[in-house]
Design a protein that fits this description.
Helix content is 28%, strand content 23%. One of its GO terms (biological process) is sulfide oxidation, using sulfide:quinone oxidoreductase. Keywords: FAD, Flavoprotein, Oxidoreductase, Quinone, Transit peptide.
Length: 557
């Protein structure tokens, strides 16, 4: 007997026998639904036998037979109605369990998000790809797909999506490109650290999406619900279908605030803030200016996260303000890092450690934030040091800057495009999908082992544009991504440690050492971050002008 739990209320199973029913009751199930028609297989017990055994075991049993491969809308409605009537948890069965899982998926489509349904069935071992359009359509069979078709479809209108659309349009002006994104506003997220440090005004980091979409690119203002890569189709919310010849996937990642108990309820008050949100970065600066004594915590979750240096950038700029205003001796700064090192590339660590000393910050490694009690101003951390039993510690705070846990977006994690960890599965050099030759990915959502930064996306966009253009011309990939990422670590107001590195931690400086030595804090790097990079972002990167971003060519071996 192979019982597969889908949710706490429902499980699916392959064909059961009358002797299995007692075991099902012992497992805590209170009702059984049979979705297999009597007589479908020569070795199958009929429903009357199962019903009699269920009655003897004190279980309810219902018969909703469905022909294999022919699940009708009415069947799903009947299944949902029966689920509501029966005591739970319920075990539904058919020949393999797939019909039962399909019926559950369609019956819940009107009340649960498609990604949640797909995640639950995927975890149970059932592939709902064949009914994904019906799930997105509220469980009903679409009557009109209303297909639109484009040469290239780009999913995501963040830094990566707009940059790659512009770069590709510059190479192939006649391409029919569609960009899918439901957002009204586009944000320059690297600027939020500076907002939290009182350097930038928040409004300078936001522009309307419509003002940034490259000329000639169709903007479809809608969210993606699912992918059908075998049919070259993207399913939008509302079950509209967009077809493509080639697909570029770059929707960014998801900030999983809810993973920390109590965090959502206290964000923006009780001294809890984060530069990872546009509306909260000003609160960071408000807290920093207002704190005259007490304990300030800065947290960093397990990798991967976008801009791995951002949690400590907030620490440095805050510490610098307290140093300059003379209150630092009365403030205890603690860096609560789920990882085991200050920074992943060792060449930059000595410079950073000197500032940790300057600000008298305490480094607490292997400390992962798991809960926050905002009104009590207490934070709980799971401490999981190597070769030691995990423990929990609770720390009082007067101010806490939180970097949230981060995962791939829900609709990506449950899609055929994802690897086991939920990220889009690409070749780290060409950024082409490992299973689907007409799909590419870039930005924070893909699984190449690079730092997830805007600077990385700036380098990736030309690589993908070159390789998509080459593919259109019938050629093999012509450009390789070397893993470049940049993290301008704002160690004090007016100085930055400009970390630039690629795969394996290889240093990849953009400037000669006499101009900017990235391993040391420099004024030149601060001027780059403050005055040069924002206009480069808005006026070059997002317009397909690849300043200092020429792709590396593929070389014959």
């Amino acid at each position: 007997m192979d019982i597969r739990k889908i949710t706490d209320d429902i499980a699916a199973s392959a064909q059961i026998t009358a002797t299995d029913v007692a075991l099902i009751a012992e497992a805590g199930y209170r009702a059984i639904i049979c979705n297999r028609p009597d007589g479908e297989g020569a070795d199958q017990p009929n429903f009357e036998e199962i019903e009699a055994a269920a009655k003897q075991a004190g279980l309810e049993a219902r018969y909703i037979p469905v022909v294999s491969g022919k699940v009708q809308d009415a069947d799903a409605v009947a299944f949902g109605k029966t689920l509501r009537e029966l005591p739970g948890p319920v075990l539904a069965y058919c020949r393999s369990g797939t019909r039962s899982a399909t019926l559950w998926s369609l019956s819940q489509a009107g009340s649960l998000p498609p990604a949640q349904i797909l995640a639950a069935t995927k975890q149970a071992g059932y592939d709902m790809a064949g009914v994904v359009r019906r799930i997105v359509n509220g469980g009903k069979t679409p009557t009109d797909t209303g297909d639109a078709r484009f040469d290239v479809v780009v999913v995501g209108g963040g830094a990566a999506g707009i940059a790659v659309s512009a770069s590709l349009k510059a190479r192939k002006p006649d391409l029919n490109i569609a960009l899918l994104d439901p957002a009204d506003i586009h944000y320059y997220q690297p600027g939020w650290t500076m907002v939290g440090g009182g350097v930038f005004e928040p409004q300078t980091t936001a522009r309307t999406m419509g003002s940034l979409i490259p000329r000639g690119v169709h903007w479809i203002k809608a969210a993606v619900a699912a992918f059908e890569p075998e049919d070259n189709a993207v399913i939008l919310d509302g079950c509209r279908v967009v077809k493509y010849d080639r697909l570029i996937v770059c929707p960014g990642l998801k900030l999983d605030w809810h993973r920390v108990e109590g965090l959502v309820e206290t964000l923006g008050k009780n001294g809890v803030t984060s530069n990872y949100r546009y509306d909260l970065a000003p609160y960071t600066w408000e807290l920093v200016k207002g704190l005259k004594e007490g304990r300030a915590l800065f947290t960093q979750p397990p990798m991967p996260i976008k801009c791995a240096g951002a949690p400590q950038k907030a620490l440095y700029l805050s510490g610098d303000h307290w140093f300059r205003t003379g209150v630092l001796p009365r403030i205890d700064i603690e860096f609560m890092n789920a990882g085991g090192v200050l920074f992943g590339v060792k060449d930059y660590v000595p410079a950073l450690e000197s500032y940790i000393e300057k600000y008298r910050a305490k480094l607490n490694f292997f400390h992962n934030l798991v809960a926050v009690d905002g009104p009590a101003r207490k934070a709980t951390f799971k401490v999981a040091k190597p070769d030691a039993e995990a423990t929990e510690v609770t720390v009082d705070f007067d101010m806490m800057h939180v970097c949230p846990p981060q995962v791939a977006p829900d609709f990506i994690r449950v899609s055929p495009l994802a690897d086991a960890a939920g990220w889009v599965d690409v070749d780290q050099g060409t950024l082409r999908h490992k299973s689907y030759d007409n799909i590419w990915s870039l930005g924070d959502v893909m699984n190449a082992p690079n730092a997830k930064t805007a600077a990385a996306a700036r380098m990736q966009a030309p690589v993908v544009a070159e390789n998509v253009a080459a593919d259109i011309d019938g050629k093999a990939p012509v450009a390789l991504y070397n893993g470049y990422g940049s993290c301008p670590l704002t160690v004090e107001r007016g100085k930055i440690v400009l970390a630039e590195f690629g795969y394996g931690g290889a240093l990849l400086p953009s400037f000669p050492k006499w101009l900017i030595d990235g391993t040391k804090p420099t004024r030149a790097a601060w001027l780059l971050k403050e005055q040069i990079l924002p206009p480069v972002y808005w006026k070059a990167m997002l317009r397909g002008k690849e300043w200092m971003a020429k792709p590396e060519p593929v070389t014959a071996v």
